[in-house]
Automatic annotation (TrEMBL):
It is a multi-pass membrane protein. This is NADH-quinone oxidoreductase subunit N. The gene is nuoN. The chain crosses the membrane at residues 6-26, 38-60, 93-111, 123-140, 146-166, 178-206, 226-248, 268-294, 300-320, 329-352, 358-378, 399-423, 435-455, 499-520. Residues 468-492 are annotated as: Disordered. GO terms for molecular function: NADH dehydrogenase (quinone) (non-electrogenic) activity; NADH dehydrogenase (ubiquinone) activity; quinone binding. Belongs to the complex I subunit 2 family. Pfam families: Proton_antipo_M. Its main location: membrane.
Length: 529
């Protein structure tokens, strides 16, 4: 059997893979100096931009979805019966997710250029690992068989371990990397166990074939039909294990406890990567498995998703209220946002559930990346990066203070941050129309709870700090009694890449606030096909 490969379809991940290899070669042969760090960052940005250009070109070309790595029709089943079986499909669902990931990657790369400017982290390895993560993140929504799903998800996860640990001589970073590694290994093992059960019963790895077998449309090749229908408990266990594996990846309750420690221990660009790109990949895989592969088992997984969504948004908001660290607050806020994104998937009868979850995820990505970019800016001038360090930021740095305030009110769903408000309205409307009033009520209560910590942080930005108008003229005693040099009256000026990252995220968030229909147009018709 010879398969034809459509290189145009796989061009976005292929470009990123080639650029990753190029970055390693350039890092090996170029001299180690500040200009090399900038050059490697620009090469990485160029690779992301070229990959994004291919995604946009595929989206604008129209026509039916394109696929590759397909089983020939004469081998797809008896007399060619049954759905087409392809491993890689570029439909609107794939392109929307890939476009969102690549735009978010531009912000993360800009933040990385700021992080790497000090020279304490190996630049070539950093960008290589980052590009490998992006390859997995844009391959995963195109994956249509269980093997490729697992491989793509691990390609997203494995490089992040090393990225987290690259803050050398930092105990918190090493601890965060170990925790992330252990969590990922456990989640992968659970997911593989569930995948093996589903494959053993259905006799297929392709999602389209799984859907047809579990819905009773066709018989599994080489498997007694009575076996499929006679083992409902085993099917249920397989579904639950697969959902649990993805729940680890998106930090959903009860698999959420790792999020805050890992986000705080990792560098800020890696935390932003985990909160947006890695989370988006996890949601893409979860949606594909549930909606495409296990649609016939919706009666089993829909109630589970509803309960997990309610617990996730509640736990995330309650834990965020107790935080004093900016990064930890954003980590628990990210957990709560995962609950909002999950909620529409519990409405199996709603045709727009997938589009609603995707719309919320796209808007959330812009808001969260903007907040992390400002946190990146402040983390270079303070040690602990706690909420009190942001007191009076709107007076010390009006641009950064206003940008962070706008992103926070967006996350809270308050005017003028209408993007967050529209996102919550989309989800709330879907829940009410779908008949899940109990979940809509829980979401409404959690939205009110979330207002507290977002409003508290925003209020600090506009609260003047006594004595900040001038720097101290005498040495400051430290906790050990030693004298420290006086604070500098002018803080360190960050590279322009930080401001570019803030500006890009802010522009997208403002666009979504004034034109939410742009998001709806992208996601409402992004169902598979």
């Amino acid at each position: 059997m010879i398969q034809q490969i459509d290189y145009y379809v796989i061009a976005p991940p292929l470009v990123l893979a080639l650029v990753a290899a190029l970055v390693l070669l350039l890092d090996a042969f170029l001299p180690a100096r500040p200009g090399t760090r900038t050059a490697l960052g620009l090469v990485t940005l160029a690779g992301v931009a070229i990959s994004l250009a291919f995604v946009v070109a595929q989206a604008l070309s129209g026509g039916p979805p394109r696929s590759t790595f397909c089983v020939p029709p004469n081998l797809a089943g008896p007399a060619g019966q049954g759905p087409a079986m392809c491993s890689f499909v570029a439909d609107r669902f794939t392109l929307v997710f890939a476009g969102m990931v690549l735009v978010a990657a531009v912000v993360v790369v800009l933040m990385s250029m700021t992080q790497l400017a000090d020279g304490g982290i190996p630049v070539g390895e950093w960008y290589f690992l980052l590009l490998c993560t992006l390859v997995g993140a844009i391959t995963l929504p195109a994956s249509r068989d269980l093997v490729m799903l697992v491989v793509a998800l691990e390609l997203v996860s494995l490089p992040v371990f090393a990225l987290t640990a690259m803050k050398r001589y930092d105990g918190r970073a090493s601890e965060a990397a170990v925790k992330l590694f252990v969590v990922s290994v456990v989640s992968t093992a659970i997911m593989l166990f569930g995948v093996s059960l589903l494959y053993g019963i259905a006799g297929a790895i392709y999602l389209s074939r799984l859907a047809a077998v579990f819905s009773g449309q066709i018989e599994a090749p080489g498997v007694d039909p009575a076996l499929v229908q006679g083992l409902p408990a085993v099917v249920t266990v397989g579904v639950v294990l697969v959902v649990a594996g993805f729940a680890f990846k998106i930090a959903a309750v009860p698999f959420h406890s790792w999020a805050a420690d890992v986000y705080q221990g990792a560098s800020v660009p890696v935390a932003a990567l985990l909160s947006v790109i890695s989370k988006a990949a996890g949601f893409a895989g979860l949606i594909l498995v549930l909606v495409v592969g296990l649609s016939g088992q919706a009666a089993t997984w829909a109630p589970i998703i509803g309960i997990v969504a309610a617990l996730t948004m509640t736990a995330g908001n309650l834990l965020a209220m107790r935080q004093r660290s900016a990064v930890r607050l954003l980590a628990w806020s990210s957990v709560a946002q995962s609950g909002y994104i999950l909620a529409p998937l519990a409405i199996t009868a709603a045709s727009g559930a997938v589009g609603t979850s995707m719309a919320y995820l796209v808007i959330y990505a812009a808001m969260n990346l903007g907040a992390f970019a400002v946190v990146m800016l402040i983390s270079r001038t303070v040690t602990r990066n706690e909420l009190d360090d942001y007191r009076g930021l709107a007076f010390r740095s009006p641009a950064a203070g206003l940008a962070l305030a706008f992103c926070l009110v967006c996350l809270a769903g308050l005017p003028p941050g209408l993007a967050g408000l529209f996102a919550k309205v989309f989800v709330f409307r879907e829940l009410v129309v779908g008949g899940s009033g109990w979940l809509a009520l829980i979401m409404a209560v959690n939205t009110v709870i979330g207002l507290y910590y977002y409003a508290t942080w925003t209020a600090r930005l506009f609260t003047p700090t006594p004595g900040t108008s001038r720097a101290p003229t005498s040495p400051i005693p430290s906790a050990t009694g030693e004298s420290l040099p006086p604070a500098s009256p002018t803080p360190h000026r960050p590279p322009a890449t930080t401001w570019l990252a803030i500006g890009l995220a802010l522009v997208v968030a403002v666009l979504f606030s004034f034109a939410p229909q742009v998001v709806l147009d992208m996601t409402s018709l992004s169902a598979f096909g």
